[in-house]
Design a protein that fits this description.
heterodimer; A: 210 residues; 8-stranded antiparallel beta barrel; B: SH3 type barrels; 2 domains; 9% helix; disordered N terminus; SH3-like_bac-type (chain B); signal (chain B); OMP/PagP_B-barrel (chain B); SH3b domain-containing protein (chain B); OMP_myx_plus_Proteobacteria (chain A)
Chain lengths: 210, 248
C-alpha cells in the first residue's frame, strides 16, 4: 500500500518536473526592438536657499537696547515652510543699578557680549503680492517663526526659545528685503535669582536666494 | 557647481547678473502635450493664473523654487508652473520630463536629510541639529551636534552615527542607531571654579521617522550615552528628542 502511494506521488512529481523543464524552453516569437530611454530630470537651477545679513535693535532685559547684527540662512522646503538658522550679536551696556550706584561693574566687558544662535521653522502664512505700479508686482510673505537655540550672555550659555513674525519682499526672483521681530526667551540666574527674560530683536535685512 | 557659484555670489564675494547665470547651460525646453498648462504670476498656489500655454507650445524651463518652475514661452511670457504639470510635458524625444512634487515614495528613497530636535539630555534642556546621508535605502550616516543646558553645567557634543532603517517604505519608519562622539562639559560660572572637561562618548539608540507631507518629517528618538570620563566611573545619560526635519 505504502509503495503504491510512493509510486503515484513520485510519478506525479516526475511529470511536473518534466512539464516544468519543457515550459522553460525559450520560444522566441518576437524579437523586441524597444529602444529604452532613461528618464532623467533635466538639470535646471534650483533656488531653495536664502542667505543674508540683518541689522537692528535688541532690547536686553535689565539692560538697555543695543544695536544687533548677524547672519541668517534658510532652506525653503516648500512654498509654505522653511528652516532657518540665525546667528547674531550685540554688546550690552551697564544695568540701571550699575549706573545709579556708581560702584564697580557687576560683569566684565567680555561677559556683556550677547550672542545668540538658533534654529527655527518658518511658516509663510500670508503670501501676497505688492503692486508698485501697473506693470510691476513683487512677491511678499508674512511669516511666523518658532524655534530653539542658545544665548551666550553674562558668562554662561542659556537655553533659548525663539518666536517671532517677519515680512519678506522679493524685488526680483533672488533679492529680498526682510523685516523681522523676534523674542528670545530664556531663564537666567546671573543676577541672583532665576528669572524669565524676554529679549526682543527687531531687524531689517537683505537676503539672496540661490 | 552652479550652486556653489551662486552661493559665493550671495555671500557678496562675486556678483553675477541673472542673465550670465542662465548662459552656463543650454536651455531646457519642453512641449505641452496635455490640453493646457497654467502659468501663475508667482511661485505659489494662491497666486493668480495669468496665462495658459496650449497643447503644442514649447516652453523653456528657467529655474525651480520649491515645487514651482519658472518658464518662458516662445513669445517671451514668463510665469510659474507647478512641477506636477511640468512632469506631464515632454522633451524633444517625446519622453515625459521626470518632475514631480516630493511624496512618500521620495521619502523612502531620500538621499539627504537635515533637521533639528528639542529634547531632554540627562534631565536638562537640549537642542540637536543633525544632517544625514543615505548610502543605501536602509543605511545612513549622520552627523549631529547637541547642546544641553543644565543647572550645574552646559554641554556640547558632536557625534557621528550609523542609522539603520528596517522598513524605509513605511510611513512610520523605525530605526536603530549607534554612534561615537566627543563631549565637552562646562560647569556653570556661578559655581566654584571647576575645569571644563572633554570626554569621548558612545551611544546607542532607537526611534521613528514619520513622513508628514511634502519634504517634511517628524522624528522621535531615544539615545543612551556612555560618557568615558577620566574618573573611576563612566557616566551614563539618557536623551529624548523630538524634532522636525526635511529630506532631499
Amino acid at each position: 500500500m505504502e509503495y503504491r502511494y510512493q509510486r503515484v506521488l513520485l510519478s506525479a512529481g516526475l511529470w511536473l518536473a518534466a512539464a516544468g523543464a519543457l515550459a522553460q524552453e525559450p520560444v522566441e516569437v518576437i524579437d523586441p526592438q524597444v529602444d529604452r530611454r532613461e528618464i532623467v530630470t533635466p538639470a535646471i537651477d534650483t533656488e531653495n536657499f536664502e542667505v543674508g545679513l540683518f541689522v537692528g535693535g535688541l532690547s536686553i532685559q535689565d539692560f538697555s537696547s543695543e544695536w544687533v547684527y548677524g547672519l541668517r540662512g534658510a532652506w525653503h522646503v516648500s512654498e509654505d515652510f522653511f528652516f532657518e538658522a540665525s546667528v547674531g550679536t550685540a554688546q550690552a551696556d551697564l544695568t540701571s543699578y550699575e549706573k545709579l550706584s556708581g560702584g564697580p561693574p557687576l560683569f566684565k566687558d567680555s561677559e556683556r557680549d550677547f550672542t545668540f544662535y538658533d534654529l527655527t521653522v518658518g511658516w509663510n502664512f500670508l503670501p501676497g503680492e505688492i503692486y508698485f505700479s501697473e506693470k510691476r508686482a513683487f512677491k511678499s510673505d508674512l511669516y511666523l517663526v518658532g524655534g530653539v537655540g542658545g544665548t551666550d550672555f553674562l558668562g554662561d550659555t542659556w537655553f533659548t526659545a525663539v518666536a517671532g513674525i517677519g515680512y519678506r519682499l522679493l524685488f526680483n526672483d533672488w533679492i529680498a528685503l526682510r523685516l523681522d521681530v523676534r523674542d528670545h526667551i530664556f531663564d537666567r540666574d546671573a543676577l541672583g535669582e532665576e528669572e524669565l527674560t524676554n529679549n526682543v530683536e527687531w531687524t531689517a535685512g537683505v537676503t539672496f536666494f540661490f | 557647481m552652479l550652486r556653489c557659484g551662486l552661493c559665493a555670489a550671495a555671500l557678496g564675494l562675486a556678483y553675477l547678473p541673472a542673465a550670465a547665470r542662465a548662459d552656463d547651460d543650454p536651455a531646457v525646453t519642453s512641449r505641452v502635450v496635455e490640453a493646457y498648462i497654467e502659468m501663475r504670476t508667482q511661485p505659489g498656489r494662491t497666486y493668480p493664473v495669468f496665462y495658459v500655454a496650449e497643447r503644442g507650445e514649447t516652453i523653456e524651463l528657467l529655474k525651480r523654487r520649491t515645487d514651482w518652475i519658472k518658464v518662458r514661452n516662445a513669445r517671451g511670457i514668463e510665469g510659474w508652473v507647478h512641477v506636477d504639470e511640468i512632469g506631464r510635458t515632454v522633451d524633444a524625444a517625446g519622453q515625459p520630463l521626470a518632475f514631480a512634487a516630493p511624496d512618500r515614495e521620495d521619502f523612502s528613497r531620500r538621499r539627504f536629510e537635515a533637521g533639528f530636535m528639542l529634547g531632554n539630555f540627562d534631565s536638562s534642556d537640549a537642542i540637536t541639529a543633525y544632517t544625514g546621508w543615505h548610502f543605501t535605502r536602509n543605511l545612513s550616516i549622520e552627523g549631529a551636534y547637541t547642546e544641553n543646558y543644565g543647572d550645574f553645567s552646559d554641554g556640547r557634543m558632536g557625534s557621528l552615527n550609523l542609522v539603520h532603517e528596517m522598513f524605509p517604505h513605511w510611513r512610520y519608519s523605525p530605526f536603530f542607531t549607534v554612534g561615537v562622539g566627543i563631549r565637552e562639559t562646562n560647569p556653570r560660572s556661578s559655581l566654584v571654579q571647576t575645569e571644563d572637561r572633554v570626554d569621548n562618548v558612545a551611544n546607542v539608540g532607537a526611534g521613528v521617522t514619520i513622513y508628514l507631507t511634502g519634504r517634511l518629517m517628524l522624528r522621535l528618538q531615544y539615545k543612551h550615552h556612555v560618557i568615558m570620563t577620566d574618573r573611576d566611573d563612566d557616566e551614563e545619560a539618557g536623551e529624548w528628542n523630538i524634532g522636525i526635519s526635511a529630506f532631499y
